[in-house]
Amino acid sequence: MHKINQIEFEILKVWPLGERLRFFRSKMQELYGKRNYSTKALGERLNVSPQSITAIERGISKNPSYHVMQKISIEFNIPLEAFSDEYYENGFRELSIGSTGSKENAIINNSFIEEDYNEAYLGCILFKVYHDNNMRIIYSKTTENAFEILDFAKPLSRFVHEMELLDQDIKSFESKKTSPIEFSYELLRLIESKPDKYPLIKKEKLEEAIKGLNDLKGKDGER
């Protein structure tokens, strides 16, 4: 296992995604052997082409698949958010690469992750809740452009941040151990690993329900 020192942390902070991946992979090579963590060997274990890994490291692929980065983070035993700029924004934090176990145990064979929902649109429903438990939908929006799943973390973290600020004072918010971006990545991981807890529903059903509420609101306003 390699523990990142403060100098390495500051370097990672200014590096883009590809350079971070190259750095983490080089540390895994130092720990467990160059052959075990060549792009070819890593790609074979993760069911990812070596060319894809090389493209990310060289900055050719600037928005890699969430599933690919998730597999790599598991293999390196690092948090997925360590590849993001947000992870380095609040100063030095402890970060370790590799397993605390033996070299043999460190070579993780990740199971294949289905990519049925690798890309999707982002939607939002905003509503007011009154003291008598009545609710009113005041805004609903679905993006016109589709996003890679990993890109959901950034807008989600901004929304979480705003909700936290509304619900408590800034001082208590800053004292929390989990940042909004970490919470967002963790939520994405939970959705991936426990889909039954986040069931799919048909978009048409939700739109129908919202339309019904808006129609009811319109009828109430006519009386």
UniProtKB/TrEMBL annotation:
Classification via SUPFAM superfamilies: lambda repressor-like DNA-binding domains
Residue span, HTH cro/C1-type domain: 28-83
Source taxon at top rank: Bacteria
UniProt-listed PROSITE patterns: HTH_CROC1
Stretches assigned to coiled coil: none
TM annotation in the entry: none
SMART domains reported in the protein's UniProt record: HTH_XRE (SM00530)
InterPro entries (alphabetical): Cro/C1-type_HTH, Lambda_DNA-bd_dom_sf
Descriptive protein name: Helix-turn-helix domain-containing protein
